[in-house]
Amino acid sequence: MDPYLIPALDGVAYGLLLFVVAAGLVLSFGVAGILNLAHGTLYAIGAYVAAWLADGGWAAVPLALVAGVAGATAAGTALAGLLTPVKRGDHLTQALLTFGLALAGGSLLVSAFGPEDLPVRVPAALDRPIDLAGHSYAAYRLVFIVVAAVIAVGLYLALTRTRAGMLVRAAVDDPQMVACLGVNPTRVRVGVLAVSGALAGLAGVLGAPIIGPGPSTAATVLLLSLVVVVLGGLNSVVGTLVAALAVGEIQTLGVALLPTAAPFLLYAAMALILAARARGLLRRWSTA
Amino acid sequence: MRIHKMTAALIALGLAATGATACADESGGAGGTLKVGLLASLSGTYQAIGTDIRDGFQLYLDMHGGKLGGHPVELVVADEGDGAPTAVPAATKLVKQDRVVALTGVVGGGSAAAIQPVIGPAKIPFIGSNGRPELKDVSHVWHTSYLSQETGAAIAQYVKDNVKGKVYAIGPDYQGGWDQLKGFTDAFARAGGELANADGKTLFTPFPATKNFTPYFAQIKASGAAAVYTFYAGAAAIDFVKQYAQSEVKDLPLYAAGFLTEGGVLNAQGDAARNVYSVLNYSPDLDNAQNREFVAAWKADHDGPPTTYAMASFDAAAVLDKAIGAAGDNPTAETINEAIAGLGQIESPRGAWQFSKKTHSPVQKWYLRQVRQDGRALSNTVVGDLATVGE
């Protein structure tokens, strides 16, 4: 077990990063009914802002957090505005529109920051390895695990214990009833996309040293978070968390255990789970 | 309307006529302007390398009054993009429309292979300055760079002599990675070295998908290796080096093909790259007259020191300079190609080298470099000579 300790720990860091991103995607799809293919681009905005502002000091951290989250939130809100004429549930139009915006946004980011993957500087005190039971591990990633875990707990509490969270959950279950209760669906939709953007931007700033900004960042992040959404479903925070951690572990512990299978491990696992779940769904259809 | 059409036709006719006379001018007369085509990635993933290649060639022209072999040269630059799909139409334009007498540049080995059917029938000499694919017929193909397998082969004996124990070999899973690593592992085995890899075979990581090398570092740690040999370039090189420095194997010496720490990636890696050993055919701190002049001229309008890519393109211009000078008063593609075959030693910023009769790529010396502090910046400092490779 000893040689696999660090990959297993790294899988948690990776999984929690994916959780924060994918939680935003789950919100926009589950609550607002919007299939947002520009979600990876919102992450990229946060990551580029982190690369741009971070200079190895502590002062840059809150600055990058505020700027990155604000930028991605604004982009998410703008997205909600552009999607207003599109009918709820018209996923093809949404996908085309958001995919087009993702391409345009990606080009804008590249023309602003250049075509190369940018380095991200973390505070000097965290830019070193630390000792863990005879192994070394990057200090930044260890701190990231703690911070992301706090975000996950906060998100869970917000969804289960606050009025806004209850509205969100109600909107997933029965959007018409929520509208009848006098809550403006447009406001829910804009609010949800703004929060979704904020989560992607937050993940982008914090995760930039792990999945760094570059021309392929948006596509990588979108693909991985779509996998998480497919595996975890749209119904619960816990489901998303479990799926994100599983994807993280497959990408690290799985690769360490079976290095030769690394190129297809993730998609093989996804195909297996989908096959099992699809059969489950089918059975429910036939009994209904 | 009819009159307009007539005017248009007349103008077109006039343009065609001037175009024809222009062409006639180029091919005839001593000292007439020669067109040289340069194909390099000016956009996409390899933009940084492509820009270095263009600037290296242009620098040689600027330092020699815009002339090669006594003839004024018009450099026609075209964008290779990310690979064959963009490189082929760009090369076709240079050959068919611009009618260049020689073609140089080309970043990717795949692009270099794909444009052969375009330049082959025209019998234009191709002086490649970077990617060198496996080719059957090299009668009109020359490279000022290296063969992919030579990099690792040049450092294998040194690694065997200086590492007490087994060495772990790891690299990216694509043609360039296979060639680079095979060059090392074959020569290392011949020198009596042993790999630490589980089945004695190099570990190849998915490319370009791999961003996180932590699981592979755990493997290396578990293998009990005493050192690591690798080849990565670009974004993967940044990720690999930064993560290596904070990983479980941070104390193992890292040996690499020079591209791991070459050019812009070294700035991005920063302190994480300190002490990495690498092998390359060039370093900006080489102490010879050609190099001092080259580096000074390069730094006059660039921020950092020149890379091996810029140096190889500078040398491609030097090769053409000598060959055009030796190709008579009325150089054609064919006579230039013959003149290249007859060139002897070429004095270059990397030291003297010459074309191999067999592979048409350089027989050259390789250098051991280490990333060290040089003034305020980190740089690849030459710490010794390695083997001279080429046949």
Give the tally of β-strands of chain A. 2
CATH architecture of the largest domain in chain B: 3-Layer(aba) Sandwich
Domains counted in the coordinates of chain B: how many? 2
Distance between the termini of chain B: 67 Å
Please, could you describe this protein's structure?
Chain A: Belongs to the binding-protein-dependent transport system permease family. LivHM subfamily. The complex is a heterodimer of chains A (288) and B (391). Chain A is 73% helix and 3% strand. Chain A has 288 residues and is mainly α. Chain A folds into two domains: 2-257, ABC transporter involved in vitamin B12 uptake, BtuC, CATH 1.10.3470; 264-288. In chain A, a hairpin with a 2-residue loop joins strand 1 (129-132) and strand 2. The termini of chain A are far apart. With 391 residues, chain B is α/β, with parallel strands linked by helices. Chain B has two domains: 32-146 and 288-360, 3-Layer(aba) Sandwich (Rossmann fold), CATH 3.40.50; 149-280 and 367-389, Rossmann fold. Chain B has helices at residues 2-27, 47-63, 84-97, 109-114, 116-119, 148-162, 175-190, 214-223, 234-244, 264-269, 289-300, 308-326, 333-341; strands at residues 34-40, 67-68, 71-79, 102-105, 126-128, 141-143, 167-172, 203-205, 227-230, 254-257, 277-280, 354-355, 362-374, 377-389. In chain B, helix 6 packs parallel to helix 7. Chain B is globular. Chain B starts with a helix and ends with a strand. Chains A and B meet through helix 1, strand 2 and helix 10 of A and helix 8, helix 9 and helix 10 of B.
